[in-house]
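User: Before I run my own analysis I want an independent prediction to cross-check against. Here's the chain; please return only the structure tokens and, at the end, one sentence I can use as a sanity check.
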Amino acid sequence: MHSCILLSGIATICKEIQEVLEIEVKKTLDTAAKEAWQGDIMTIENLTKIISTIKADIENDRLNESIILLLEIAIHDFKKRLAIIPKKKLLHEEIISSLKEVHKNIIHAKL
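Assistant: Structure tokens:
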């Protein structure tokens, strides 16, 4: 269940990043910046949904090829998307590192 612990950590980090972005949206009067941050919030929300789905499947012992594919997509797609979010850069690296470790754990569990 180490993967579930990592996924819970990712969800916590996502919540922290989202809270910071929501504060920025409320503070700014710049429409372009507000729209960009709202897009970043959507990215974080989507990642959180994926993490929740993967965690539920692990907890219910439903590991399959689609979960592995979903993790691969999350790693590659969100790595690019998180890189452009200006807030909490160090946390982005932690998210990607944890996703990679979960992916490795699932691959080994399937072997």
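Sanity check: Residues 82 and 92 are 6 Å apart (CA to CA).
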